[in-house]
Amino acid sequence: MSRVDHERCRDILDAAADIERYVPELGGKYGDMAYDAVVRKLEVIGEAANRLTSAAKALAPKSASEYSGSGQAVRARRRDMVAIMAI
């Protein structure tokens, strides 16, 4: 995996971790800001994922739909990304 792919994977992992921190705040005093932050982090994930090389994408062929539950999907995806980054 290229250094650029490695950095993009790190961006995805960091954004996912940020989302996990922001989600509990969605119903609180700063819910609107938390919502905006989650949306922005999803954009970061999408941008980074779209720019991964074909070689990097081939290392993680599973889609999020194969996991049940959104929290479980994020954690499973993070494990997949960490494994790819170790290559």
Topology:
Layout: H1 3-22, H2 31-51, H3 54-59, H4 70-85
Helix pairs in contact: 1-2, 1-4
General description of the model:
- The protein has 87 residues and is mainly alpha-helical.
- The protein has one domain (3-85).
- It has helices spanning 3-22, 31-51, 54-59, 70-85.
Oligomer category: single chain
Strand content: under 5%
Order of helices and strands: HHHH
Low-confidence stretches: none
The major β-sheet equals:
none
Mean pLDDT: 81
Report helical residue fraction: over 70%
Class by alpha and beta content: mainly alpha
How many domains? The number is 1
Q: How many separate helices?
A: 4
**General form:** elongated
Number of strands: 0
Q: What value does the Rg take, in angstroms?
A: 14 Å
Ends distance: 7 Å
